[in-house]
Amino acid sequence: MRDILWIVQNTLRVTFRKKKNILLYLFMPLIGIFIALMAYGGDQKMILHVGVVNQDKAEITADTIQFLAGLENVKITELEAGQVQEEIVSGKLDSVITFEKGYSDSVLAGRPDHIQLTSIKGAQVTGFVKSYLYQYIDNISTISRAADGNQQTFQQMYQDYQQSTFQLSTNSLADTSRNKNMTNQTIGFLIMIMLISASNLSEVILLEKEKRTYFRLLSTPINARKYLLANVLVN
Q1: Which label site among 71, 88, 158, 230 has the fewest CB atoms less than 10 Å from its CB?
Q2: Strands 48-54 and 115-118
Q3: Crossing angle, helix 224-234 and helix 176-210, to 10 degrees?
Q4: Does the reported pTM lie above 0.70?
Q5: Domain boundary pick from 174, 201, 222
Q6: Is the same domain home to 82 and 187?
Q7: At the top level of its lineage, which domain of life is listed (predicted)?
Q8: Cα–Cα dist 175/190, whole Å
């Protein structure tokens, strides 16, 4: 056992004689873990910045905008039509919803129209807002069709819908995929360091054989098994 420890000590001394090996074996794993923590740690909660252009100025339009403002993780900013392109291109807003003149009338007629959604970030960003918005509009259109053109009946049903007392409770689930990704990345980085270490130690063994240090060691009570075991421990 003492012979093995002596070989381990000697190998470590030879290995860390080069300063680059100190950086490689001691600091690189820590740097890799730190990068993984920075990449996957922290709060990943995303806020969607949505602009709204109201060209209809009707009650249903105002209520629709209020509904959007009440969505979690959505921040509403009211704009003028001339500001849409600038805000989208600059990246200040993820998307812009334009309620054109006639939007409310189309909803009352049961055929929602005159609404445009502008975005350059694709469906992955806008899908969340679109799903809730279109569901809300469909509900209002359904109420209008049920009223069958009776404005008083529609107003009563619409008010009941807006003032409904039912509540929807939501619970957030922990996203374990981030921790899994961080663990996989950290393990992969450590495996890479171990492979590099094994390659360097193999180089040390070959160098000692070339200088016949290996054979001189075997002429002592140290045998090949002890020599290899010591190098495995170092690795």
Answers
A1: 71
A2: unpaired
A3: 140
A4: no
A5: 174
A6: no
A7: Bacteria
A8: 24
